[in-house]
Design brief:
- This protein has about 210 residues and is mostly helical.
- It contains ten helices and no strands.
- The protein has helices spanning about 1-10, 30-50, 55-70, 85-105, 110-130, 135-145, 150-165, 165-180, 185-195, 200-210.
Amino acid sequence: AVVFYLKLLLWPSGLNVDHQFQVSASLFDPFAASAFALVLSLCFLAFYHRRRHPLPLFLLLFGLIALAPASLVPLNVLVNEHRLYLSSAAFALALGYGAGQLAQRGWQGAVGWAGLVVVAALGIATFQRNQAWQSELSLWSDAATKAPDMARPRFLLAEALAGEGQLAAAIQTMEQGLQRDPDFLVGYVRLGQWRQEQDQQAAAASAYQR
């Protein structure tokens, strides 16, 4: 998760209100092991260069400590973008420090132009991301598309579809979500209600019995 957050800080692509993220059964899982090795290597490099460049070590520790509560306490949402808000301050300071080091070596022009390009690109990315937030339907449609194996986006997409009067699509989406999480009892209640609204009494009774 820490490496995933770092990737979002480097470039916020693939933003989602409910990321597709699974728990690793072991630290020796290839994904968990490689991520752990990367975090350790960053800590080692920052510690190794602490005398010449003390600020990066401080900022790295600050960022990890800011993420610690969400990383150490079990939560029902494994990763969430808003948990980066405090750590992003450390990342911004690290970028500024790196830009300052390059400017001292005569790269002022390149740093300035790179900054302009990044700001313009982020502006375009922000505009594009805002399209997903226009409504509940667009938001959860985006989430379900980007996280096809997650149940929650489909549950909330089904609610948004029902709110728009698209009961057939809502029922199909809720059933897809229940295939991924068959213990979500509220989903069966909603299925029963929507089936009743469509005068499908037998199917409604089956959903309520579940």
